[in-house]
């Protein structure tokens, strides 16, 4: 008989890629984990993964059991969430603000799902380029902030949602298209199109241009992502945006993209919450939904453990 512990073990193996790390995640010894897997394979009369493969690869039978694991663990988690709602009540407030100005595309579907599961939670969000959400979070005016620029503020915790690559968007006929990746100096004679926020809050300045002492020829701002992309496509300049934002425009053939440096620039997107609210069931639920939605639907993002 397949047990819940077996399913959790297989999921841990898939997510970590090794017996050692899976055992650590499940608080088991490697010997105990190996014994559990052999026991399950004996019951099923088949091997579930290919021995000595790096990274670990599952057999076809193992992949089928993993499909079962995803379905069952999701249902178990849903039941556990329902019980928490019954125990802790469903009343609460979750006011959100966004510093990542490209996040509306994934935030709204997440909110729609969340509303169905937590109808008693009062939801609202605010944005804008003059609003300072992190101080407002610390003061209790809002409850959660989406940001890629964590600030050391007492009482505020930052939960990683996912990692992404900051890419440089270029017109399809731009001379820099010939390069496989860009160096800071390549932007010295370019107009850089950005959101109207302080430079020290923008990854393209913080992590790419300023460390190299490079200043773009000019800076032009726009509050709208689509407008930035259209300006780039028409040859009015270049812009730096997350890979998952630019992916749809690249697919449409509107623009081309290049990495910032050979290894690229890889920021992390966070959800900032106050310490006392971090473990609230309705806050944890939103964080889990946001992570799952983004990792499943946004192209090019990576999981941050």
Q: How is this structure best summarized?
A:
The protein has 305 residues and is α/β, with parallel strands linked by helices. Helices cover 42% and strands 20% of the residues.
What gross morphology would you assign?
A: globular
Taking Cα atoms only, what radius of gyration do you get, to the nearest Å?
23 Å
Average pLDDT, all residues: 88
> What is the fold-level CATH name, i.e. the topology of the largest domain?
D-Maltodextrin-Binding Protein, domain 2
Number of domains: 3
**Alpha-beta content class:** alpha/beta
**Spatial order of the strands in the main sheet?**
8-12-7-11-9-10
In the CATH scheme, the class of the largest domain would be Alpha Beta
Which percent bin holds the helix content? 40-55%
- Annotation field: number of helices: 10
Structure report:
- Its main location: cytoplasm.
- This protein has 10 helices and 13 strands.
- The protein has 305 residues and is α/β, with parallel strands linked by helices.
- The chain has 3 domains: 4-85, Arc Repressor Mutant, subunit A, CATH 1.10.10; 92-163 and 267-297, Periplasmic binding protein-like II (D-Maltodextrin-Binding Protein, domain 2); 166-260, Periplasmic binding protein-like II (D-Maltodextrin-Binding Protein, domain 2, 3-Layer(aba) Sandwich), CATH 3.40.190.10.
- Helix 1 (4-16) crosses helix 2 and helix 2 packs across helix 3 (30-44).
- The longest helix has 29 residues, at 60-88.
- It is globular and about 65 Å long.
- It starts with a helix and ends in an 8-residue tail after the last helix.
- The mean pLDDT is 88.
